[in-house]
Amino acid sequence: MLKGIDVSSHQGTVDWDAWKRKGLAFAVAKATEGRTIHDSEFARNWAELRRAGLVCGAYHFGHPGNDANTEADFFLSTVRPRGLEAGDLLVLDLEQTDGRSAAHVSSWVRTWCSRRRRSAATPSSTHSCPSPRTGTAPGSAVIPCGSPPRHVRRAGHGRG
């Protein structure tokens, strides 16, 4: 089984070489949130993941209360300039519904994924986990954007 982690600026500077020595195969770094938030560590994390020889992933923290196409375009405009390669992972992190119905969130995810798929030639997946704010996840409202990598599991968060 491959091990991976997800990180954001909340973890600060990550020692990617230390994580690789621990057997990490991939990481997914937060790139964007909503329509306007850039993660301050994304560019560094992306470059360091490449340098360390780990599979690179980027995630967008989605807000179904916003326009899905606008959010997907914002995410891609942040990730694309860093260079996409075959095998890179592009992920939608959906932890909240913004008070929207399951049907709305499901449609929103399909729209986001469709826009992402048309605009970037790499596989992707949708990731959902319990929200620290509400304790609930959208559940059945989550629609995979594509086939997630086989034998991938989330190993946790951390600095290395």
Protein model, in words:
- With 160 residues, the protein is of the alpha/beta class.
- The protein has a single domain, classed as TIM Barrel (Alpha-Beta Barrel), CATH 3.20.20.80.
- The protein is built from four helices and seven strands.
- Strands 1, 2, 3, 4, 5, 6 and 7 form a seven-stranded mixed sheet that branches.
- It is elongated.
- The C terminus is likely disordered.
Could you give me the name of the CATH homologous superfamily? Glycosidases
Distance separating the two termini: 19 Å
- Strand % is 15-25%
Summing up helix and strand content along with how strands pair, one would put the structural category as alpha/beta
Shape: elongated
Give the topology string: H per helix, E per strand: EHEEHEHEHEE
How many helices? 4
Low-confidence stretches: 125-144, 146-160
What is the architecture at the second tier of CATH? Alpha-Beta Barrel
Would you tell me which CATH topology applies?
A: TIM Barrel
Number of strand segments: 7
Total discrete domains: 1
Sheet of most strands: 7 strands, mixed
* Global mean pLDDT: 80
Radius of gyration: 15 Å
Fraction of helical residues? 25-40%
CATH class assignment: Alpha Beta
